[in-house]
Amino acid sequence: MAKSKKYVDAVRRYDKQKLHEPAEAFELVKSMATRKFDETVEAAFRLGVDPRKADQMLRGTVSLPAGTGKDVRVAVFAAGDAAQEARDAGADVVGSDDLVNRIQNDGFMDFDVAIATPDLMGQVGRLGRVLGPRGLMPNPKTGTVTTDVGRAVSEFKGGKVEYRTDRNGNVHVPIGKASFPVDSLVRNYAAVLDELQRARPASAKGRYLKGVATSSTMGPGVKIVPDARVDA
């Protein structure tokens, strides 16, 4: 696919092979985010894990201290008091069988996070083929299957994001917007880095953090010193 003129111009402005300290990297990313919309800034971590082994697949959540800069749309599968709790916490759509049918039959997908109470996972399981490939299937490991739906809604609305390894052992996490101050991006990056270090599988041998890069939605990647000290 042909690269845009703005992308090519941005690439010419920096050394693609140079490793940058985090703050310097985010300064560069912000300077190269020239689109008319507020681009998302993402961090990509190349980990020394073998995702073919179940005990080396990472999946979880991390709360970004500076938030995501995005209006996160939350859908909740719940009934009774739990459903009201979800609405009170600001969930965008709440339902049980009706919501399952709406997704299954009408193709409704206007949400970024799906949360479910344990008693409804039998019905929600019917949506595996729809929600699974999009990374939206509720899962206890990410706190999206819970009896405390109010808290879960508040956390995801407030800046909690999911992460998982892909088939190549990489983890991609949004850490804010190009409009964020550099120190906010550094704080969010530090939180993700700390979480990935905490979640390191005991069976992972050798160098764990092999490479890190960051980019905006339409911008080129900027490499970060993997073991750089981050004071957030």
Layout of secondary structure:
Layout: H1 5-12, H2 22-32, E1 40-47, E2 59-63, E3 74-77, H3 80-88, E4 93-95, H4 97-106, E5 113-116, H5 121-124, H6 128-131, H7 149-158, E6 160-164, E7 170-177, H8 182-198, E8 209-216, E9 222-224
Parallel strand pairs: 3-4, 3-5
Antiparallel strand pairs: 1-7, 1-8, 2-6, 8-9
How would you explain this protein's 3D organization?
This protein is of the alpha/beta class and 232 residues long. The protein has eight helices and nine strands. The strands form three sheets. Strands 7-1-8-9 form a four-stranded antiparallel sheet, with helices on one face. The mean pLDDT is 91. Helix 2 packs across helix 8 and helix 3 runs parallel beside helix 7. Strand 8 and strand 9 form a beta hairpin. The chain has two domains: 117 residues, Ribulose 1,5 Bisphosphate Carboxylase/Oxygenase; 84 residues, Rossmann fold.
Summed up, the helix count is: 8
CATH topology of the largest domain: Ribulose 1,5 Bisphosphate Carboxylase/Oxygenase
What share of residues are in beta strands?
15-25%
Radius of gyration: 19 Å
Low-pLDDT stretches are none
Q: What is the number of strand segments?
A: 9
- Which structural class fits the helix and strand makeup? alpha/beta
CATH top level assignment of the largest domain: Alpha Beta
